[in-house]
Each structure stands twice: as C-alpha cells, then as structure tokens.
Design goal:
alpha+beta, 13% strand, 18 helices, elongated, four-stranded mixed beta sheet, 668 residues, five-stranded antiparallel beta sheet
C-alpha cells in the first residue's frame, strides 16, 4: 500500500483484494484473482494516469474484428509493422473471452509533440497479400488503445452529431483487390486537471500534467515512392540489430502524389511493397477525465429517441398490466365470496376452479426436471439482478474491458446457493424422494450442457485461428469455476433447502386423479404458450434489440437504467400473464398447471430468437458458416436463458397464486 503513487494506474481495492488477509479466505481467493486483477474499474480521484509534455503515451493493439464474420483475430495475425520485442499485457477472464489479445504497438506518441513519421516498409509475399485482401473485403477493423481508451473513427450522420465508432477499417474493397488504409492521422485530446498555462515553454516548465480524454483516427490510402534506400534492421554498429520503425520521411525520401491510393491485387507472383505512415496532432479539450467515455456511449438513434420509444412501450405495457390485474383481482374476490357462501350441503354447485381442489396440488410429471428448471431460473435471475445493480450503481463499469463479463460469470457461480435452496424446497414439496439426484442434476446437467456447447463453438473458432478461441489455461479456469466454486455452493444451498420442513398444503390430494373435461382448441397448451409470450416480449423488445445490437456491432452498452426499468416491467407482466392463464386453465377444470405455468411466458425466448434472426438478416449480413454458427449458437443460448427467466417468474407467481386462492376457499 505504501508503494501506491498518485500517478499510478493501480487501485487500492485491487491491492486490498489480493492482500494475504483476503486471499487467506478460500472461497474468495478465486474470486479475487478473476474479478479484481489486473485493475479496478472504479475511478478514484488522484489515481488517473497523468502525463508530462514529451512523455511517451502507452499505446497498445487489441484485435481485428468484423461484424460480418464475427471472428476476431490478433492484430499481428496480418503482416504488420511489429516492434522488435512484443510484450503481452495482463488480461482478465472477460478480455480473453472477448478475443482481446493486447500487445505493445509499434507507434511512438509523445504528449504535445506533433509529428509525421514513416512507420515501416513491408514486402508482402502472395500469401500475405491475399490475406490482407481477404480481411479488407470482409470488413475488418483494427482496434488500438491509448491510455486504455479505444481509438475511434467519426462517422457523419444527417442532422446529428457524428457517431464515434471504435476501431478503423483496414481498407476498402476494389475490383480484383482492395485499397489499403496505410496512412493514419491520429488526434489525441488531452485535458488539464486544473487551470494553468497551456502553451510553449511556460507549460513545460510549470510541471503540469495532462490526462488523455480522446483518441481518434482518420485512415486514408496513399501510394508511396521513396527515393532513398530503406535501411535494414541489421545495419547497426558491428552488424547489430536496430529498430527501423518510426523513421523521418525525409530520411528515406518518401513522397506521394496525393491522389493515387495503395491497391493490393488478389493475384500476382512478385512481392508487393507496402509502406505505412502516420501523423499525430494534439488538441486541448474541456472534457473532464470522468466524461471521456461519453462519445463512445452515444446511441445511433439518439438517447432522446430511445427514451421516448422505451417510455411509450413501458407505459402501454404497464397500463395493460394494471387493467388485467384489477380485473383479475375483482374476479377472484367474487369467486371466493361465492364459493365461501355456499352451504356444506350444496356440494353439487361446486364448479369452476374450486372443483379441482383435490387435484390441483398433485405432483407433476418430471418433478426433478421441474425443480432443476426453477433452480436454473433462480440462478440466472439472481446473478443478472446483482450484475445489473452493480453496473447501475457504477461499481462495475462497462468501459473496463472484460470486467462486466468476468463479474457476471463469478456472480453466476455465487448464485448457485439460492438456486440450490429454491430447487430443493420445491423438490421436497412435490416429491423429494431422490435428493442426491437433484444435486447431481443441478450441478452437471445445465452447466454441463452449456460448457459442452461453449466448447463446441470454441473448437469452431480454434479451427479458424480466432483470437477469441479460449486457451487451455482459460478453459481450465472455467472448469475450476464450475467444479471448484459452483458445485460446492450449489450443494450447500440444496442441503439448506432439504433441511427446511415441508410446507403444509392448503388442501388434500386424492389418490386417484379425476378426469379432465375436453378442452377447446384455443385452450391447447401450445396455443396458450405462444400467446402468453407475446406481451412480455413486446414490452422488452426495444431494449433487447438495443442490447444485442450493441453486443454484435462492437458498441459499448451503458443504458442500465433503461434495462432496469425494462426488466422490472417485463417481470411484472410475466407474473400477471402467468397468473391469468393459470386461472383460466383452472376454471376449465384442468389442474395440470405446473409445467404449463412455466411455458406460458417461456415462449418469450422463442420470439427473441426469431427477432434476432430477422436482425441478422437485415443488419449484420453474416458471411460464412463460422459466423452463422457463432451468431445462432450464442443467440440460442441467450434465448434459452431468457425462456428460463421468464418462465421461472411465471411459475413462482402461479405457485403463490394457486396456494393462496385454495387456502382462502372453504373446502370440505
């Protein structure tokens, strides 16, 4: 702690989490390493990195990414200007899963030192040239980092401020080849924490420090010629190796006519000379350090338009939900008054949902599967709610690369305690004959299927050489999270649930089930399930569309306030829709409500999948079987998770509703 300096990028919370006292606690050891290493997303005053004039700025390369192929590659997977010694940056679990492979960059930037330099000269052989052309025609963008701030390219919009997109295009497609963006114009914006002189020797002598608040690039293509011979990397003293990066253009006689671009042809047997250059300018900015991410968080349609659309959707959904709740409450109250007013001798007047009192709590088919499904839903709800709350409060920032995903994975494992507890309580209530089978199914069935699907997709990425292909060490870390943290916590929660006494049923259950009357066609379970998921999906469609649009287009999602309102409204609608459909089912004397209450709103995941498929067809323009497998594989997993969450909310509401109304009615 004594070594922590104000200009350092370290954080007290990171030091505290990795201290011997914290790491001595076994359950938190793995959490501390995965979540709080190497840095903390909180912005603590005095700990932001500040630079003196002329000081070298830390620049890194992250990856190459395309929204058409969805396969990220390392920046140096192409023939690029490469530093003599590559230094890999420390990465957390989320960064590795995102495909970031962070290394030092070949560019040399010094604060308030504008310069124009020749980066390097490459001779591309036919294979390297074809790879460059392929990456450019697939729409790949290069992602760079300066002081942990991603480089952005301004895209103009009609009647609105330009949108800052992360990364820059490697080039543009051309007939029988591609145009290479081999010249980069960087603009670095800096902010002075306190008023001071800003120009010339006075600023340099004052010892004032600046903070980086903006990093933009404008790529272009230039066909270069050089009059002098380009130096070789072995022309140092006594034949020693030297670095031939960042040369002065005059040193090699570099020139271009200003009109001819650099074009790479697909075919050709001879090596092609490719020269990269860049220039840097600096601009003083009034944007404070705490707001430097605002330009990256702008919505394409504008925050006001998004807010109005979301408010309209939520207001309509809440209005319909309120009307349904009022009508439902009045109907159930009237039924209870009528049923409780009947004399004990008038048994023949028993009609409607009261007639199912001897069968309504009959254990369903597959009680173990139902308990596992509810446990998985509770686990997803708890982890998602805590992650959303932490992001909403700013404890976990989405601008900290990979930190949100790392926290979500960790919280998913910690949520195994309430998941095991709830699943065990339900299983004990409806069956409880095989407790160890429940613990085994909860521990391995759902997580095992997810892990198997993830491994299959990872093998597809590994076959393509993608940087997002999880290394063996990361795969072992995920396996350790599953077997070393998730399984013990789940077993602990389940054991606590089995120790609780079984709740007393409000009515008895006959040994022989009664016959269910013939149901109309519109009451078919499939019809009810498909119709029940429409209203919850309609209330959440706008925000869900914004969420996965940001995820697949490489934008940073930060609208956690909107997401909280949407999630709350959707949960309320799921509960009401489930209760209403369950009531109608019981009124038709059909007591098989257990699984159907789960399916009534679980179809929301199906509509999400169809919506995502339409979005991919109209917006993403996926190319290649790998992109299709990745997109629809992860979309199917997200749809299944959404089905579990919405179905779980509906089931809990129906479970409470059924027990409440049958506890309030007189049953002989």
């Amino acid at each position: 702690q004594k070594k922590l300096e104000p200009a350092s990028s370290a954080c007290y919370c990171c030091w505290r989490a990795t201290s011997p006292t914290m790491l001595a606690r076994a359950p938190l050891r793995l959490a501390s390493i995965l979540l709080l290493q190497p840095c903390c997303p909180l912005l603590i005053p005095g700990l932001q990195r500040e630079y003196l004039e002329g000081e070298e700025l830390p620049m890194r390369v992250a990856k190459l990414m395309s929204t058409r192929t969805l396969v990220p590659f390392s920046y140096y997977s192409l023939a690029q200007c490469t530093p003599r010694s590559l230094e890999a940056a420390a990465e957390n679990l989320g960064e590795v899963l995102h495909g970031d492979r962070i290394f030092n960059a070949p560019f040399e930037l010094r604060l308030r030192r504008p310069r124009a330099l020749a980066l390097c000269r490459l001779l591309l052989d036919p294979q390297e040239r074809e790879l460059w052309v392929a990456r450019i025609r697939e729409g790949y963008r290069a992602h760079l980092l300066l002081d942990n701030l991603p480089v952005g390219t301004r895209r103009p919009r009609d009647g609105a401020a330009p949108l800052l997109e992360r990364g820059y295009l490697l080039g543009a497609a051309a007939p029988d080849g591609a145009i290479v963006h081999n010249h980069l114009h960087f603009t670095v914006r800096y902010h002075l924490p306190s008023p001071s002189v800003t120009t010339g020797e006075a600023w340099r002598g004052s010892g004032r420090r600046a903070r980086i608040v903006g990093f933009e690039v404008e790529p272009s293509s230039r066909g270069y010629t050089h009059a002098a011979r380009w130096p070789d990397d072995s022309e140092g003293e006594a034949g020693s190796a030297v670095d031939v990066l960042n040369l002065s253009p005059a040193e090699v006689g570099l020139s271009h006519d200003g009109t001819s671009p650099m074009v790479l042809r697909r075919r050709g047997g001879k090596p092609v000379e490719l020269i990269f250059t860049y220039n840097v300018t600096y601009a003083l900015s009034e944007v404070p350090y705490s707001s430097r991410w605002d330009n990256y968080l702008m919505l394409e349609e504008g925050s006001q338009v998004h807010w109005l659309s979301l408010c309209g959707s939520l207001a309509l959904s809440l209005l319909l939900a309120s009307l349904v709740a009022a009508i439902m409450l009045a109907t159930v109250r009237r039924d209870l008054q009528k049923y409780n007013a009947i004399d004990a001798d008038d048994d023949l007047v028993e009609v409607g949902w009261k007639y199912t009192h001897a069968d309504v709590l009959r254990p369903p088919a597959g009680p173990l599967s139902l308990s596992c499904a509810l446990g998985a839903a509770v686990q997803l709800i708890c982890s998602g709610a805590v992650t959303l709350a932490l992001a909403l409060l700013g404890v976990i920032s989405p601008t900290a690369r990979g930190r949100l995903l790392t926290a979500a994975l960790l919280l998913l494992c910690l949520s195994a305690v309430p998941a095991g507890y709830v699943a065990a309580r339900l299983y004990r209530q409806i069956d409880g004959s095989h407790p160890y089978a429940l613990i085994g199914a909860l521990s391995f069935a759902l997580p095992g299927s997810v892990f198997a699907a993830f491994t299959a997709l990872d093998l597809v990425l590994w076959a393509r050489g993608a940087s997002s292909a999880v290394p063996l060490t990361t795969l072992l870390a995920l396996l350790l999270l599953w077997l070393g943290l998730h399984v013990p916590l789940l077993a602990t929660g389940a054991s606590l649930g089995f120790r609780q006494p079984r709740a007393e049923d409000p009515c008895f259950t006959n040994l022989i089930p009664r016959q269910i009357p013939t149901q109309p066609l519109w009451a078919h379970p499939l019809v009810a399930a498909l119709s029940g998921g429409l209203l919850p999906f309609g209330s959440a469609a706008i925000e869900l569309s914004s969420l996965y649009s940001s995820a697949w287009n490489g934008r940073i999602y930060s609208l956690f306030g909107f997401l909280f309102l949407t999630a709350t409204t959707t949960a309320l609608i799921c509960a009401e829709v489930g209760v209403v459909l369950c009531y109608f089912q019981l009124c038709r004397e059909d007591y098989r409500w257990w699984w159907r209450s789960f399916a009534h709103t679980g179809s929301c995941g199906l509509y999400f999948f169809l919506h995502a498929a339409a979005y991919a067809h109209s917006e993403l323009h996926l190319s290649g079987p790998t992109a299709i497998a990745i997109y629809y594989g992860y979309t199917a997993a997200a749809s299944a998770a959404l089905s579990l969450v919405t179905g779980g909310v509906s089931f809990v509401a129906c479970f409470w509703f059924v027990r409440s109304i049958f506890a309030a009615v007189k049953v002989d």
